[in-house]
Amino acid sequence: MKKHFALGLTMMLVAMMLAGCMFPDSEKAQNQIPYADQLASVQRAVDQFRDDTGGLVPIKTRDMDTDIFIKYLIDFERLVPKYMPEPPGNAYEKGGIYQYIIWDPENTAEVKLVDLNMPERIREIRIRSMNRYMPIAEPINAKAYHIDYEALGFKEPLTVKSPYSNHQLPIFMTGDGNLYVDYTLDLAEILREEQPDVKPGDDIRDLLIERSPIVPAYSIPYTVDENNEPVMMFGKKQEEEAKARENTEETTETP
After folding, report:
1. Which string of DSSP letters, residue by residue, matches the chain?
2. All residues at 6 or more sequence positions from 187 whose CB lies less than 8 Å from its CB, including other chains
3. Keyword Signal on this protein (predicted)?
């Protein structure tokens, strides 16, 4: 009887240990939610840092041509412990899935977030296509293509959960070989339901930035067509962002 009890206890302990391994810190709920109080605490720390340093911002040094959405990563070593006791639980530095950034550092210096599920999903696709050309399926337009996931060995197309809605967002490739998250579904929803004042040529990713603490990282510019529908915007600006992506995609910190 004692042997059976000991065996059962051992099995239960093993199961508990395995369960702990299956749910690491990066998967805990508190590390995945962009809590308003966490954002507010970082914003207060950044504001105080700026007041004490004559307007400087506590950011990590990055190349000037780094992707604008990950260019101004907050350096928590410059904030802890003087301005805050520790980084937020959902920050990458604490095992979370967000990188804290500063948006518009020369003016408002607003604290925003990058959802690291985005680069992780892109990296997953890149790993499958190592040492070969990325297989493409039908074109989205003249400069963007759907990925042939079947050729990469996936049973179905990979998507990533939108940080703005319940949509599953596709990942696509441009003619220069870069991979991006397609925010068309989210943008179309805002345009349809809120009818914001935008015109062709405007970069309507600002609609997402204005409505959420999370920035639309790993994207290309979007604008509207004559029917006020979202369309990908290619041109000099997109080429500059593509170049920045090439310089940063392999070095971006991910959990």
Report:
1. -HHHHHHHHHHHHHHHHHHHHHS-GGGSGGGTS--HHHHHHHHHHHHHHHHHHTS---B----TTS-GGGSSBB-GGGTTTTT-SS--TTBGGGT-SEEEEEESTTTT-EEEEEETHHHHHHHHHHHHTTTSPPPEEEEEETTEEEE-TTTTT-SS--EEE-SSSSPEEEEEEETTS-EEE--HHHHHHHHHHH-----TTS-TTHHHHHH-SB---S---EEE-TTS-EEE--SHHHHHHHHHHHHHTTT----
2. 204, 205, 207, 208, 222, 230
3. yes
Give 82-117 pLDDT, tens digit per residue.
999 999 999 999 999 999 999 999 999 999 999 999
**This model's pTM is above 0.90:** no
Q: Which residues face 110 on adjacent strands?
A: 103
At 207-252, the pLDDT tens digits run: 999 999 999 999 999 999 999 999 999 976 555 555 554 555 554 4
Burial label for 111, CB within 10 Å (0-12, 13-18, 19+), is: buried
